[in-house]
């Protein structure tokens, strides 16, 4: 993309960005004419952050603490945060992933009051033995629900094959046994380490201003300087070999589910360029515009959910292909053949350009929606980047970059396969008929 267009683009999507004396990163995208505002308060703390050192103290957490903590943040001495949001009319939620926890709400009125609920509950944690015991039962039910999800079991099964030691092997919510070990001290240690303002991002988009968001930060003490000591994450060495090459599971599914995973070298935390390049390569191989996808879909070999994704967190990068098929082995072989063909011949230039334009367009389209815009800002800010920088970086990726990357990724030497087969108890799909 020409340099003058890059400059114009950066001006067009320029987000207001400030780092407060407390270390908190604040990004605001005022959107005049919009009636709602979406706000996200995010921390770099996810399910993989289980072993760390802070103030000379080593802490080792059982699986599921980050997700457990997310649930507990909504409860304090004054009651439940959802009840407070109900009074302001805001629609609130939260989620935990492998490497982050995000608290969010959308409001069309009483924005200041909703900001006070959000910042108050996240910056003033409150835990007791009694409230933890109550939550252990609730989350235990959620864990059982995940255990019944073939999509989730497929992904976690692949992680167990690909990795020996990395905590991505463990479910985000943990296990019933692991969350039974959680204590108030563990939760307070986690808050001190990962809920420090310097480890967090506050992003807002819509009917608001930087001044309004900063005023809320002022009310909650986030303008005051804080300790600059950062948590030191402790990682066990992870070899590039596989823990297992193949795993099979039987579940009540109507059609076999399969996953093919490739273990790749971990990427530096701020290397969003390589991640975006890998994602583009996957679009060329299995995206909706790829020849392989059309052959598989037109032949009835896969459903529309078939595709690939890149997953990268600290110490871990892998490429996963998943789907459903009555002929999973045939699909896997066609996938490997297509990877080998594109590696030898190079990516199709026209398809590469179409896929790149599609992703470019999605980034731009997200700027017109308050939820997507705030989410996009927070996601990139957690990696130290602006939306404009990400768009400019994507525009600079070339087919030659993809060809070069393909020479060292998607190696069958680092490939694991996960299969989930029907156990015979699933109900028939709508388009299936029972044999007479």
UniProtKB/TrEMBL annotation:
Domain Peptidase M16 C-terminal: 182-357
GO molecular function, one term: metal ion binding
Short name of one Pfam family: Peptidase_M16
Spans traversing the lipid bilayer: none
Domain Peptidase M16 N-terminal, residue spans: 63-175
InterPro entries noted in UniProt: Metalloenz_LuxS/M16, MPP/UQCRC_Complex, Pept_M16_N, Peptidase_M16_C
Name used for this protein in its record: Peptidase M16
Organism: Faecalibacterium langellae
């Amino acid at each position: 993309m020409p340099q003058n267009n890059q400059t114009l683009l950066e001006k067009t999507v320029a987000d207001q960005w400030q780092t407060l004396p407390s270390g908190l990163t604040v990004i605001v995208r005022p959107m005049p004419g919009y009636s709602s505002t979406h706000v996200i308060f995010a921390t770099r703390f996810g399910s993989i952050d289980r072993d760390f050192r802070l103030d000379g103290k080593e802490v080792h957490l059982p699986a599921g603490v980050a997700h457990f903590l997310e649930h507990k943040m909504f409860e304090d001495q004054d009651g439940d945060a959802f009840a407070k949001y109900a009074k302001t009319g805001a629609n609130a939620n939260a989620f935990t992933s492998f490497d982050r926890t995000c608290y969010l709400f959308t409001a069309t009125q009483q924005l200041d009051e909703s900001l006070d609920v959000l910042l108050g509950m996240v910056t003033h944690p409150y835990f007791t033995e009694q409230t933890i015991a109550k939550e252990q039962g609730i989350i235990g039910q959620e864990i059982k629900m995940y255990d019944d999800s073939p999509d989730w079991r497929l992904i976690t099964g692949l992680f167990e094959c690909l990795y020996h030691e990395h905590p991505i092997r463990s479910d985000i919510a943990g296990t019933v046994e692991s969350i039974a070990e959680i204590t108030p001290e563990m939760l307070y240690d986690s808050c001190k380490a990962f809920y420090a303002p310097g480890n967090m991002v506050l992003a807002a988009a819509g009917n608001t201003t930087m001044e309004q968001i900063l005023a809320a930060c002022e009310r909650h003490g986030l303008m005051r300087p804080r300790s600059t000591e950062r948590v030191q994450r402790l990682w066990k060495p992870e070899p590039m070999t596989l823990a297992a090459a193949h795993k099979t599971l039987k579940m009540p599914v109507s059609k076999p589910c399969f996953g093919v995973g490739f273990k790749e070298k971990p990427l530096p935390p701020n290397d969003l360029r390589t991640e975006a390049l890998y994602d583009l390569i996957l679009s060329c191989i299995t995206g909706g515009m790829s020849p392989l996808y059309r052959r598989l879909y037109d032949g009835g070999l896969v459903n529309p959910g078939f595709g690939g994704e890149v997953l990268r967190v600290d110490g871990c990068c892998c490429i996963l292909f998943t789907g459903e098929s009555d002929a999973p082995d045939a699909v896997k072989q066609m996938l490997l053949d297509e990877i080998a063909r594109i590696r030898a011949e190079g990516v199709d230039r026209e398809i590469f350009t179409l896929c790149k334009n599609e992703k470019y367009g999605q980034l731009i389209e997200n700027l017109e929606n308050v939820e997507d815009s705030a989410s996009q800002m927070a996601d990139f800010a957690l990696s130290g980047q602006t939306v404009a920088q990400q768009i400019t970086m994507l525009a600079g990726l070339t087919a030659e970059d993809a060809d070069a990357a393909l020479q060292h990724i998607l190696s069958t030497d680092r490939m694991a396969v996960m299969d989930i087969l029907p156990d015979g108890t699933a109900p028939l799909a709508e388009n299936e008929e029972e044999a007479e």
